[in-house]
Specification:
The protein has 201 residues and is α/β, with parallel strands linked by helices. The chain has 6 helices and 9 strands, in the order βββααβαβαβαβαββ. Residues 7-13 have low confidence and may be disordered.
Length: 201
């Protein structure tokens, strides 16, 4: 499933570019760092979700489903998914921790010629509070993550979903509906919606 890598700059161990080819032949180029936190590289889950946005199942007939829609990507890292959405005409805000803002802005700049909507980078945290504060009953959140089995990851994942279920319902997208080439048994796509309030406001 690996997308090609390109070396960049004088220090090839520190910086490299991940190429993500779209179905129409255009190419997103995503700067990555060889060291740093988890947000410094394009994860396979970002590629799976980006390619899912291109599937007929998601994109629909005629104008793309994301055209002229507002999209907020939380935990964007390199911004791969948000940039892909912006190439379909979405108005996108990509978010991550403050230390990743320069990387996000660099990737926006490298791909601005492909954007038909808009895209901007912002710092936003923490995740669950943000999801709750920014979503309404009509908001559809698309979550993609790679299931990890090492260390504390299973414990953290279990706790995250326990907390998420307090305020949200979610539906797993079956693997057969993912892009036929860019899919993996351990990468999951979920549609998440805020639960309707039991009490009238």
């Amino acid at each position: 499933m690996a997308a090609p890598l390109e070396s960049s700059g004088e220090d090839q161990l520190r910086n490299f570019v991940r190429v993500l080819e779209k179905r129409d032949g255009t190419v997103l180029r995503l700067q990555q760092y060889g060291s740093g936190g988890v947000g410094c590289v394009v994860w396979d889950a970002a590629i799976v979700l980006s390619k899912y946005l291109e599937t007929p199942e998601f994109s629909g007939d005629g104008a793309h489903a994301l055209s002229r829609r507002s999209v907020l990507e939380l935990g964007s890292g390199t911004g791969a998914v948000g940039l892909m959405a912006a190439t379909f005409g979405a108005d996108v805000i990509v978010t991550d921790l403050e230390e990743l803002q320069d990387l996000l802005k660099m990737n926006i700049n490298m791909n601005k010629h492909l954007v038909t909507g808009s895209v901007q980078a912002k710092s936003l945290e923490p995740l669950l509070k943000t999801l709750k504060d920014l979503s309404g009953s009509e908001t559809c959140i698309i979550c993609c993550y790679e299931q990890r089995t090492m260390g504390k990851n299973p414990e953290i994942e279990k706790k995250y979903f326990e907390l998420l279920q307090l305020d949200f319902d979610f539906e797993k997208i079956p693997l057969e509906k993912h892009d036929e080439e860019y899919r993996s048994e351990d990468i999951h796509i979920l549609y998440i919606r805020k639960k309707k309030s039991k009490f009238p406001s």
